[in-house]
């Protein structure tokens, strides 16, 4: 199993942080973090910008659908989901889900307590 790291307590300029939401996402990506948690004080002002910046750093199904449309594999954007990458379609890969108890056990197994 590949180890992934996250910083779940990141402040942006929306409260008392040093970076804009976009800069925080970029810095996290450059540091190799798999995820960050924006935890600004008394504000959710940076969430939209951070989500948009984060989406630009990963590839998900809408990105694949746009490429399929651009290359002529489908006639309409929604065709990609209806025929190929939608839930229960041939190229759909279900996201791995872990229960909270399993997540806690995984963390305990990864570090010494």
From TrEMBL:
Gene Ontology terms, MF aspect: 5'-3' DNA exonuclease activity; 5'-3' RNA exonuclease activity
Lineage: Archaea, Methanobacteriati, Methanobacteriota, candidate division MSBL1
InterPro entries: PHP_dom, PHP_domain, Pol/His_phosphatase_N, Pol/histidinol_Pase-like
Residue ranges of domain Polymerase/histidinol phosphatase N-terminal in the record: 6-79
Sequence segments annotated as region (Disordered): 1-22
Protein name: Polymerase/histidinol phosphatase N-terminal domain-containing protein
Domain of life: Archaea
Residue spans of biased composition, Basic and acidic residues class: 1-10
Gene3D superfamilies named among the record's database cross-references: Metal-dependent hydrolases
């Amino acid at each position: 199993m590949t180890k992934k790291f996250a910083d779940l307590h990141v402040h942006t300029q929306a409260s008392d942080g040093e970076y804009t939401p976009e800069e925080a996402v970029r810095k996290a990506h450059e540091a190799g973090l798999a995820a960050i948690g924006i935890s600004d004080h008394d504000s959710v002002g940076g969430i939209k910008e951070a989500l948009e910046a984060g989406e630009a750093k990963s590839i998900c199904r809408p990105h694949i659908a746009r490429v399929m449309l651009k290359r002529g594999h489908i006639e309409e954007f929604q065709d990609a989901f209806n025929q190929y990458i939608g839930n229960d379609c041939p190229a759909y890969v279900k996201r791995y889900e872990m229960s909270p108890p399993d997540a806690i056990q995984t963390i305990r197994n990864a570090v010494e307590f």
